[in-house]
């Protein structure tokens, strides 16, 4: 519905609207009409900024991946402080927020979206693949500081942590796991590797 009012930051408003629909109704309810209705704008606004709806969704996912980059740098910089298990627990809890869990569901449910995302994430599940790389970078920094065993297989530990975390948080309609449950899983994955 045209309002005659210019929309500032239309892309961000559309992304935020898509997240709200995704959180409230799930990936199957996400359509260009649902997004523009949620954003309170005409359907043409979305198509003025994106070639088609899958292009919009791909940019939404890439934008949310980019938002995790800053957190990845903070995690890497935290090496040598606190505890390894504590940092990993916090990272997984933050990573698997409701929006990220919903986006993973969206990516896995739309073939065309996955095909477009393969241009920037050639393997794995976009968002989770980048998160595993962030954890691996952090673990490598901790290994250099001697807080992780020198023979630790970081390339296996990082995706194991991501997979375990995803299983804990995957039910977008259920209650989020408590911090202690996440910490226990992280400690179990890291047992015998941490040297603190």
List keywords for this structure.
196 residues, mainly alpha, 67% helix, elongated
Please describe the topology of this protein:
Blueprint (H helix, E strand, L loop, with lengths): L9 H16 L6 H8 L3 H7 L3 H25 L6 H12 L2 H12 L1 H7 L10 H17 L9 H16 L9 H12 L6
Short description:
The protein is 67% helix and 0% strand. By secondary structure, the chain is mostly helical. Helix 1 (10-25) packs across helix 2 (32-39) and helix 4 packs across helix 7 (111-117).
Can you walk through the features of this model?
It is a single chain. This protein has about 200 residues and is mainly alpha-helical. Helix content is about 65%, strand content about 0%. The chain contains 10 helices and no strands. Mean pLDDT is about 90; it is low at about 1-5.
Tell me the total number of β-strands.
Answer: 0
Low-confidence stretches: 1-5
Number of helices: 10
Spatial gap, N to C terminus? 59 Å
- Biggest pleated-sheet summary: none
Mean pLDDT score: 91
Helix content: 55-70%
Element pattern in H and E = HHHHHHHHHH
Assign an overall shape: elongated
| Rg over CA atoms | 19 Å
Secondary-structure-derived class = mainly alpha
Q: Based on the structure, what is the oligomeric state of the protein chains?
A: single chain
Into which percentage range does the β-strand content fall? under 5%
